[in-house]
Amino acid sequence: VGGITLFFTMAASLYSGYTISGIANEAYTFGFMAVRWIPAGVSLYAAFMVLAPRLHALGKARGYLTLCEFIYDRYSAPACSPAVPHILRIVALFCLQLPVFCYLISQFSSIAVEIAQYTGGGLWSGPGMSRYGTMITAGVVMLVCGLLGGLRAVAYNDVFQGMILMVGCVVFFIIEEQELGGLGGVKDYVTSPEYKAISKFGFGKFNNIPNEAGGWSTAAYASFILKVMVAATMFPHLAMRLFVAKDNKALKMGLAGMNFTFFIVQLSTMITGWVAVSAFGGAAPSAGVFASVASAVRATGKGGEFASALLLTAAICAMLSTADSSLIAFSTMWLRDFYLPYVNPRASANEQLVFTRVMGVVGLAIGLFLTSMSIRSAQPWNLSNLFSLQTVTPIHVAPAVWLGLHWKGLRGEAVIAGMIVGLGVTFGFTFSELNVKLKLGLDETKEGWSPALIGLCFNLIVTVGLGLFFEHGVVLPTGPLAIYARPINVHQLFGAKLDSLCHPALWTVVCILIAFTTPFYRDFGAPDFFIGSMASWAFISLMFSGAITIVVALAYVFLWTEYVLPEEKMLYPAPDDVDKENTVQTGAPVPMQKPAIYVQPEPLVWGMGVPMGAHQGQQQQQQTYNMQHMSPMMMPFPMNQPASYGQTAMYGNA
Q: Contact at 8 Å (CB) between 342 and 89?
């Protein structure tokens, strides 16, 4: 997809159920603590600087669509056993399932709650659309879209929706400001004795600097930012966009512009939650805050009715497209990382198409079932908590990708050990008394830190420690190469120097700015003063978030390193709806509408690429292995004479 399409599809995905229901409800209940979403978001897109140039180049050269494909190839050699990359791929595959279903639950829950509230519907019936009826309708729409479209269709749909969302957010903000008092009215109300008498807890969240530790504290604020910054880079539907971007220019411009949308999209829904406090007198809303405010805006007149309906409609469409892209990522992972390697590597295009559609239906059914459990529960699942929960397992895949892209000597054995230790520590903390918010569906210690973040620290210590030990100490034996592996030597492909986007000076500046988005430098729990209509600590957090946005955008535009890697004919040739002759000759990227054929490789040939402007000499290294001595792990299915990576089999002969 091109730069404009990529920008809008990422922006529309940002406008998810978390943004509509989660952030608005959080802003209503916890005041200015909701600001945490913006520094977390801009830090996430800063973190993509570590990954984007190299993952995009590898995706274009090798046809990757999932992170597990990279992990399998990267840690296939050197390895003491061919089981190493297989174990890593399977563990990573299961770790990356949690974000998919959390996203599905959040989209369907948000749609059900907000539409029912806006139209006056109940749980099963009512004058408007009921929650269950809305959920089922959304599921049917998703099923049709999933069967007929694909990621490209979702992306083009997002362009239209994104434009409407941008306009709708601005119009909605103006009407809130004029008709409901806006931020000025919020300040007057939340600082009043009347509000303090109604909600002492809310009064403290609006008027005081966060406490040092505990729930909704400075520690919890920092923990959320760091956890999202690392874990969300592994979310399958976001990572896939790095692979499918049309070219380097499209990707870097899309990422550079993406950060600014947080101040349009998420800040808009935060303001909606804050305005609701003054509009509804601080009382607990009967359902979704966003739809409640939209109903209030609708009652202001024809302009308000148009703006609220337009924004809510576009938001619902964006949530459906986010759910659809999550399902596409889900089915693609199971095709590329499980079905083809372990079940049917010779599947035809139609068989692969059927498999992805079936997996899409299975994923949708699981998502709807979990959503129905949330709707029928006495206390519907909190979407802010759900977002926090969905980072628990993906965060442990991050070291394998982040370090593997830059550290040549890192072995898969060290990564496996770190991942297992990290997951063990995380689950040990999460399901023990140390997690004081387990009953709320959160992972948080009494100090406010996330067990997932603590587990990540153990993961990194073990991975880095063993990685250095195996690189400079004990030399592990090298076993035979795993089946269908294309080893990656990051220094040969990208050079030994760090990318400009990973320069220590740049990251020193970025880390300092991220640190100052948290009020660690203030008197914890003390009353705060206001700058304009916001508490000063929240205003300063947004100011430093804006500085991060500008620095990161400029870095993407001016420091991006473009890599030219030799094209290795993809394991998955182009599907039926692409001109076969052109694809075989040019190795065009695989469109996302349909899955592609798996081609069996011959003894490995892999090449070396150079950054643009560097020397043009390229080398190739030949590695061979004896097929007669392969272990069962290496040969999970019968094999005929293997085909060459350098030649793509003609369609129908694969």
A: no
H or E stretch at 531: strand 530-531
What is the arithmetic mean of pLDDT over 223-237? 94
Give the rounded distance of the alpha carbon of 24 from its chain centre.
20
Contacts of residue 303, defined as CB under 8 A and 6 or more positions apart, other chains included, come to 175
| Preceding peptide of 127 cis, ω within 30° | no
Over residues 334-350, the pLDDT tens digits come to 999 999 999 888 888 88
- If you average pLDDT over residues 131-142, what whole number do you get? 84
| Alpha-carbon Rg for the chain in angstroms | 25
The CA angle 189-190-191, to the nearest 5 degrees, is 90
Q: What is the pTM of this model?
A: 0.83
Cα dihedral value 521, 524, 528, 533, nearest 10: 70
Tokens at residue 620, please?
């190739």
Please write the tens of the pLDDT for every residue from 346-362.
888 888 888 998 998 99
Of 421, 344, 256, 412, which is closest to residue 595 (Cα–Cα)?
344
- What is the C-alpha to C-alpha distance for residues 34 and 23, in angstroms, rounded to an integer? 7
Question: 């990194």: which residue's tokens?
Answer: 460
Alpha-carbon span 201 to 220, nearest angstrom: 17
Q: Residue 172 in 3-state DSSP?
A: helix
Neighbours of 570 (CB within 10 A): 23
State yes or no: cis peptide before 78, omega within 30 of 0.
Answer: yes
Q: Please, which residues bridge with residue 564 across strands?
A: 610
3-class DSSP assignment, residue 128: coil
| 190 vs 196: CA distance, rounded Å | 7
Name the 3-class secondary structure at 590. Answer: coil
